[in-house]
Amino acid sequence: MTTQTSAPGQLDEAALDLVFRNARTHNGWLDKPVPEALLRQAVDLAKMGPTSANASPLRLVFVRSPEAKERLRPALSAGNLEKTMAAPVTAIVAYDTQFHELLPRLFPHADARAWFAGNAALIEETAFRNGSLQGAYLILALRAVGLDTGAMSGFDKAQVDAAFFAGTSAKSNFLVNIGYGDESKLFARSPRLDYDEIATTL
User: Fold this and answer.
1) How far is Cα 186 from Cα 139, in angstroms, rounded to an integer?
2) Which of 98, 67, 112 shows the shortest CA–CA distance to 85?
3) Under CATH, domain 25-183 is a member of which superfamily?
4) Per-residue pLDDT of the chain (202 residues; tens, 9 = 90+)
5) Using CA atoms, how far apart are residues 24 and 26, in angstroms rounded to an integer?
6) Alpha-carbon distance values, 134 to 57, 139, 183 (Å)
7) Domain coordinates of the chain in residue numbers?
8) Does residue 107 contact residue 130 with C-beta atoms inside 8 Å?
9) Is the dihedral of CA 175, 23, 137, 43 positive or negative?
10) What positions belong to coiled-coil segments (predicted)?
């Protein structure tokens, strides 16, 4: 059972509904374009979320042109093909394995680059974890600016990396379809765990 409480500065009920309670993972899309300005606004919100040492490894490709969608098509699983090709935009959420090269600018009060240089395992772990966090921030930010999302795996990462990140230090993580969802194509909401099944206070 959830107890509703309020605190100074808390979002109002409508905002909480928009971002969390009523938001859904969409599988169908209305034929309505997504303004570039909303994508920029969502990225500018998502980048403010915390990452380790302000590492900010998130890298994005917004796939929206027919030509770019065709480059993505061969990498998609059968279950994700139709909805992804129909989505106005698909974000390739990736992470940069050379993020530490930017730490002198992003974390200037310590030599954070030295913590990672030459340690491939730590670089990969940090980039993947924090890039995943930033991808989640992006989903919430997209919802906050009035867009619907459908995050998914179910694609060939090697093909996506070859098609979109060849010659770079970025690696794909997951995909997010973006647009205005067709509510008639939603599944019934799946159950969630109760608080006591998720959390323990010691």
Assistant:
1) 18
2) 67
3) NADH Oxidase (3.40.109.10)
4) 555 677 788 999 999 999 999 999 999 999 999 999 999 999 999 999 999 999 999 999 999 999 999 999 999 999 999 999 999 999 999 999 999 999 999 999 999 999 999 999 999 999 999 999 999 999 999 999 999 999 999 999 999 999 999 999 999 999 999 999 999 999 999 999 999 999 999 9
5) 6
6) 8, 9, 26
7) 25-183
8) no
9) positive
10) none
Amino acid symbol at 56: S
Comparing C-alpha atoms, which of 62, 85, 93, 83 is closest to residue 187?
A: 83
